[in-house]
Amino acid sequence: MYGINNYKNELNIAEEVNIGRVIEKTNYIYTIADSNYEFKKAETVSNLKSNEVFVGDFVEYTLFDDYNLITSVKPRLNSVTKKASYAAKSFHEAENEQLLAANVDQLFVLIAADQRFTLSKFERYVFTFQQDNIDMHVLISKGDFEDLAEDIKQKILSVYPNFKVTVFSNLREESLIDIKKLFLKDKTSLLIGASGAGKSTLINNLLNDYKMNTNEVRIDGKGKHTTTTTKMFYSDNLKSYIIDSPGFKTISTTRDIDKSVLFEDIQKLSLDCKFNDCTHTHEPKCAVLNAIENGEMSEAYYKRYKENLRVAKGQLRHEQRKKVK
Ligand SMILES: Nc1nc2c(ncn2[C@@H]2O[C@H](COP(=O)(O)OP(=O)(O)OP(=O)(O)O)[C@@H](O)[C@H]2O)c(=O)[nH]1
Ligand SMILES: [Zn+2]
């Protein structure tokens, strides 16, 4: 329940230890779920700072007088983060990474069909969020804008044919049936996406039986309600835990980016290049250029690789200039 029993087994935590899962956080009050699907309000002990406990965390808690105290946060299997959206106050201030949720098995990134789309945006999402133990999907929402949705899907698949991309519309029941199949039983998923991408509407559709209610959809597509807190829901029919998170404007990360997430094919091939420091641009006996020549690697994929290198170099120069100032 709430993954608590599995987690206890995996970490060899004794049966009698009280472990809860944080499902919501408002100011200093947490809602935790226990393994019997009961919800409890809890606060943290004084030496545990509120920014150290987050939705998705497994926590140890104890009943103290008549309220629950979270005494420790258990080790995270992973955490999903992005660069904090507030601007750093000065050049010298370290840029902060903000936690979106902890212990996530599946990640669904919503991209609305009527949003401006570029492959760089998609790549930035993947570089920021992809991790080995997270099953990542892109969901193109508002698929009722059929041509726009199909165009985004094709743009992604023409370069990254193996990426998991699914189009859906909250207004179309058949597409919601397909979406429901993606959510794994007993697993925790996190929905993220730009503000207004349709996360909350999707969660409503996943939690309740689908009810067509077009009155709730404004013609201009602007949200009438915005999600401001991160919250975990349990879907009884999917037997799955789903975390809704506040919409964002832009995405980036301060962590080191692992390009192999998308360009592993190039990294593997480069082991066969004649020169160790091959730039795969003009060198003789370059395995990458050969693969393109033979049609084993697409030109489009190689172009994205070079574009990402170019952007990374630009960023590096920018960082260095900032340090000099
Ligand atoms: N055309 C169309 N509109 C949709 C669809 N899904 C949601 N909307 C509308 O888009 C707006 C935003 O939807 P929300 O579900 O609130 O978006 P959100 O991602 O939760 O937004 P934040 O709370 O700001 O993060 C609302 O007016 C919805 O009615 C869809 O599939 N098609
Ligand atoms: Zn090469």
TrEMBL record:
Leader sequence residues: none
Coiled-coil stretches: none
Record-stated family: Belongs to the TRAFAC class YlqF/YawG GTPase family. RsgA subfamily.
Record-listed Zn(2+) binding positions: 273, 278, 280, 286
Cofactors (names): Zn(2+)
One function term, GO molecular function aspect: hydrolase activity
Top-tier EC class: hydrolase
Source species: Jeotgalicoccus aerolatus
Role of this protein: One of several proteins that assist in the late maturation steps of the functional core of the 30S ribosomal subunit. Helps release RbfA from mature subunits. May play a role in the assembly of ribosomal proteins into the subunit. Circularly permuted GTPase that catalyzes slow GTP hydrolysis, GTPase activity is stimulated by the 30S ribosomal subunit.
Domain EngC GTPase: start-end pairs: 102-249
Subunit organization: Monomer. Associates with 30S ribosomal subunit, binds 16S rRNA.
Record PANTHER family: SMALL RIBOSOMAL SUBUNIT BIOGENESIS GTPASE RSGA, SMALL RIBOSOMAL SUBUNIT BIOGENESIS GTPASE RSGA 1, MITOCHONDRIAL-RELATED
Sites where the protein binds GTP: 141-144, 193-201
Name of the protein: Small ribosomal subunit biogenesis GTPase RsgA
Enzyme Commission code(s) on record: 3.6.1.-
Primary subcellular site in the record, as a coarse category: cytoplasm
Record text on cofactor binding: Binds 1 zinc ion per subunit.
Cell compartments where the protein resides: Cytoplasm
